[in-house]
C-alpha cells in the first residue's frame, strides 16, 4: 500500500478530512466506483487497502456512503 493512501486514511480518521475519490469509494463500499477511480498501483493493492481499513479503522467510519457522510460531518464518535 502506498504511503499516500496510509496518510490519507490517517487524516480521514484523525481529523475527518475527506479522501480522494478512490478511497472515498472504497470507504463507501462501492467496488465499481473504486475500480473505476483506481490507478494501477491501487488496483494492485486494493485487497491490502481493504484489509487495512477493516483491521485498523473504526467501524463507524466505513462500510457505506451514509457512514462516510456521517463520519465527515462529525456525527459519529469513536
Distance between the termini: 25 Å
* Structural class label: mainly alpha
* Rg for CA atoms: 11 Å
Strand percentage, roughly?
under 5%
| Number of structural domains | 1
H/E topology pattern = HHHHH
Count of DSSP-assigned helices:
5
Taken from the alpha-carbon principal axes, the silhouette is globular
List its traits.
single chain, 78 residues, globular, mainly alpha, 68% helix
Molecular structure report:
The protein is mainly α. The chain has one domain (about 5-75). Helices cover about 70% and strands about 0% of the residues. The protein contains 5 helices and no strands. Helix 2 (about 20-25) runs antiparallel to helix 3 (about 30-35). The longest helix has 17 residues, at about 40-55. The model has no long low-confidence stretch (mean pLDDT about 95).
Summary, kept brief:
It contains five helices and no strands. By secondary structure, it is mainly α.
Please write out the topology.
Elements: H1 3-15, H2 21-27, H3 31-37, H4 40-56, H5 65-73
